[in-house]
Write a structure and sequence with these properties.
single chain; alpha/beta; three-stranded parallel β-sheet; Rossmann fold; seven-stranded mixed β-sheet; 27 helices; pyruvate-formate lyase- activating enzyme
């Protein structure tokens, strides 16, 4: 490389000292990198993500420009690395961007503390602004002081001066035609990520969001206009990825409302062709749109099991939705009722004006659609640059905030411990602390029973009896004091973690994590909802089955036949999950006799009752490589309870949810039964076939 070449390092850092904390390819910095390459001659652009790789690169090379993308999940990591860059070479131009960068923060003192060392900060879209900044920096002889003096000639930029004042440039026009940005995939910037085989490709087909939600930075008017890539641009990018990808890693689509626009249908057809040819993507992670649900359902049908509809509803209460400036599809439940595709509604807890009663009512309304559903309940994050952050500052809605460690994002960087925090709404004037804790207990129960469809037979049975599914879950919730003691203990342990791991100040989180660093790094502490919903199955399978079936018998008018049906379903589930019930036992083949042909009934449960299939039936249950996994292996698959020698590379496809641990069933005649597969079952089969 020539001496006059400009060396630019762009990063979206993730923790890597004990495994990779985030396996998403860093699209945002890639787009900036490819745009710079196309506009500035003699430039060398390097894209990195793993913190250890970034430090090694900084030690080995003299970097001219260091650009870093700052998100909630890497704020403190980014701060640590950028300060390290400045220490190694004070002349390096350090530039920050990303959603957490905001020239009008509520907590100015904390913002200044974290970012004053940055030479320049860029908010909102970054390609044009970053390129313009580099051009001005080169024009001024790489003198940042002279660049700052000409900040009026830049766009979307600001810096913090010696008096801690924010000096900003005018707002730059957004990129209207997204094809104007060069694809970092087609430019080869991401080839190393694709070759490694564990990073999930991230693409974006459009930018912006027409909604004005108060909790989201895209609720700002700046983002309300939608700008698109051409379909051909997206197709070329996807084809390039498909030819080089390791199929199990899946695909992540960054659009705020995937499936809502007509071009998404055409793109879905192309993805389906790639899926048929390359077995990729088997799984697509995205946020589906808030309207045009028939079109979204169509994209899901085209993608044949790879896509789940997220339905980011946030709340089902109209007063709450009005408060947060959000509008949901008015007949959402009617659409969901007829869906075969798994739906994962995003819900936020607690929101202003939400109550315990309205929150649970909303969950139950969706549950009782009888669709294949699972709730994704997020804490209410107090994000930078949102209306809700301003509402907190004005003491509106009685919002109480707390800081806590963020998703076990902890690790060592150049020998120093670093951890991420998140600022959550802990309670509101309409949901006090105890209300929130009760709501969270119900969420754990629902998550255990619904996530990845572990006991779908129980819900099918309720459907066939024309009994609302929520009647069972509410009976369990309302009678928690009668639940098995180990279940009660697990739920109370969860609440204890919420009480003891939330703090008034961020510094208290750092201090607490420092005292418990090994437990967080190894996943002994942390994990939130995921840990405790899985704990109910991994450590308490027998008690869960007993609790569920006893509750089922109590909500259905009792008779001898009902009791026999429920016991048969319980025996069926306990046998298909033989290793979970009988810890330590190892039996390759089990034969079990039932009073009903349960499998034939499952294929027709929407129109038939279990009693319609009353006939003595034998099934053979054969162990699989997944069914026989031991308890410690299950915990490890989620990144929990690791040993010091373990390395955990995050990917949801490795997680051993209960539904993946089923034994294989063979009929009496030696044939495999023809089972009408749910989307989840088909997905699990694909994963097993193309697993790492």
């Amino acid at each position: 490389m020539k001496k006059d070449n400009l060396r630019i390092l762009l990063c979206d850092p993730c923790y890597s000292s004990s495994g990779v904390s985030n396996n998403i390819i860093p699209l945002a910095v890639g787009l900036i990198g490819s745009y710079i390459k196309s506009n500035i001659p003699n430039v060398n652009v390097k894209i990195l993500k793993k913190s250890d790789d970034i430090i090694k690169y900084i030690d080995k090379h003299e970097i001219d420009v260091f650009g870093i993308c700052n998100y909630l999940w890497n704020t403190n990591l980014s701060n640590k690395i950028s300060n390290y860059v400045k220490k190694k070479n004070p002349k390096t131009l350090v530039v920050y961007g990303g959603p957490e960068i905001n020239k009008d923060p509520v907590d100015i003192k904390n913002f200044v503390k974290k970012y004053k060392h940055a030479d320049m900060l860029i908010e909102r879209e970054g390609e044009l602004a970053f390129c313009q900044l580099i051009q001005k920096w080169l024009e001024k002889g790489k003198d940042i002081k002279k660049v700052r003096e000409k900040i009026d000639e830049l766009g979307n930029c600001f810096f913090i001066d010696e008096k801690n004042k924010f000096i900003s440039s005018p707002e730059i026009t957004r990129v209207k035609h997204l094809d104007q940005t060069v694809s970092p995939y087609l430019d080869g910037l991401f080839d190393d990520f694709l070759k490694e085989g564990t990073f999930q490709p991230l693409i974006q087909t459009n930018r912006g969001c027409p909604y004005k939600c108060s909790f989201c930075h895209e609720g700002l008017s700046y983002y309300n206009k939608i700008h698109f890539h051409s379909v051909e641009y997206v197709k070329k990018e996807l084809s390039y990825i498909a030819e080089r990808i390791n199929p199990p890693v899946g695909l992540h689509i960054a659009d705020s409302n995937w499936g809502m626009y007509q071009q998404d249908v055409e793109i879905s057809y192309h993805i389906k062709k790639l899926k048929d040819k390359y077995k990729w993507p088997m799984y697509i992670h995205c946020s589906t749109g808030k309207s045009q649900l028939p079109r979204i359902i169509k994209t899901a049908e085209i993608l044949d099991g790879a896509l789940r509809i997220t339905n980011a509803v946030q709340s089902l209460d109209n007063d709450v939705l009005k408060t947060i400036k959000r509008t949901n599809l008015h007949n959402l439940q009617d659409y969901i009722k007829n869906m075969e595709t798994i739906s994962e509604p995003d819900i936020i807890l607690p929101l202003p004006n939400e109550t315990l009663k309205s929150f649970i009512k909303g969950l139950n309304e969706l549950l009782d659609t009888k669709a294949p559903i699972r709730f994704t309940v997020h804490p209410t994050l107090l994000l930078s640059n949102t209306d809700m952050n301003k509402e907190y500052a004005s003491k509106k809605f009685g919002l109480i905030k707390k800081y806590r460690q963020n998703q076990n994002l902890v690790g060592y960087v150049n020998g120093d411990l670093v951890c991420e925090t998140e600022c959550n709404i802990y309670a509101t004037e309409t949901m006090n602390e105890n209300d929130v804790f009760l709501a969270r207990k119900y969420v754990v129960i629902l998550d255990a029973m619904l996530r990845e469809e572990p006991i779908s037979e129980i819900f099918y049975y309720l459907d066939s009896k024309k009994i609302n599914r929520s009647k069972l879950t509410m009976h369990m919730f309302d009678n928690l004091k009668k639940a098995p003691l180990k279940i009660q203990s697990a739920l109370e342990e969860y609440i204890h973690t919420l009480k003891t791991e939330n703090f008034d100040k961020e510094e208290e989180v750092f201090k607490y994590v420092g005292k418990n660093k090994d437990d967080y790094i190894l996943g002994v502490k942390g994990g939130d909802l995921l840990r405790y919903s899985q704990k109910l199955w991994i450590e308490n399978f027998r008690d869960m089955m007993k609790w569920i079936t006893n509750s089922l018998l109590q909500i259905i008018p009792e008779s001898g036949e009902i009791k026999k049906e429920v016991i048969n379903l319980k025996d069926f589930l306990e046998t298909i999950y033989f290793e979970r019930k009988n810890k330590g036992e190892n039996t390759y083949k089990l034969t079990k006799s039932f009073d009903y042909d349960i499998i034939s009934w499952k294929n027709n449960y929407k129109t038939k009752k279990l009693s319609d299939y009353k006939v003595k039936t034998n099934y053979h249950f054969i162990e699989t490589k997944y069914s026989k996994q031991k308890e410690d292996e299950l915990w490890k698959s989620f990144g929990f309870n690791l040993k010091k020698e373990d390395k955990y590379n995050y990917t949801s496809l490795k997680r051993m949810y209960l539904s993946r641990l089923k034994r294989k069933i063979i009929l009496e005649n030696g044939e495999e039964p023809k089972i009408k597969m749910s989307q989840m079952a088909a997905f699990n089969n694909a994963i097993e076939k193309y697993s790492y």
